[in-house]
Amino acid sequence: METTVKNVLIGASAAALLVFAPMTSAKAEMSDLEVIFIEADKDGDRTLNKGEVLLVAITQFNLTDSDRDNMLEMQEVGELASDPEFSDNDANKDGALSIEEVITEKLADFDAADTNSDGMLSFEEVKNSYEIE
């Protein structure tokens, strides 16, 4: 559950920002990030658009929102509530993340990762965005 929440909070939905890199015969296993990308890349074009990223973020939000009040409260995210990213994403500082706050953060993450400003995320762009977080 905490891994799911972390994806929502810091882009491991930022995980949703991953683009599958072609595998070579020497690479028998895919990384977790590549697997997440394959699932997120609904149109199969090996890039992620904002809609695909938001779909993953919203799905993860709904899975984490155990009391179905459209808020991610501290008790739902556990120790991740103490992560600075949680409070940074809590724009209204009410101690919980609304779906709107998560969407706003995912769009900002997308724009920051889209270094060539083409409106799509390549695997390299996403990989690089994880390295600086």
Give the SSE layout.
Layout: H1 2-10, H2 32-40, H3 50-64, E1 71-73, H4 74-77, H5 84-89, E2 96-98, H6 99-113, H7 123-132
Antiparallel strand pairs: 1-2
Helix pairs in contact: 1-3, 3-6
Key attributes of the depicted protein:
disordered N terminus; 133 residues; mainly alpha; 7 helices; globular
Number of helices: 7
Order of helices and strands: HHHEHHEHH
| Percent range for β-strand residues | under 5%
Percent of residues in helices: 40-55%
Give the total of domains. 1
Low-confidence stretches: 1-27
- What strand order characterises the main sheet? 1-2
What would your notes on this structure say?
The chain contains seven helices and two strands, in the order H-H-H-E-H-H-E-H-H. The chain is globular, with a radius of gyration of 15 Å. Helix content is 51%, strand content 5%. The chain has helices spanning 2-10, 32-40, 50-64, 74-77, 84-89, 99-113, 123-132; strands spanning 71-73, 96-98. The protein has 133 residues and is mainly α. Strands 1-2 form a two-stranded antiparallel sheet.
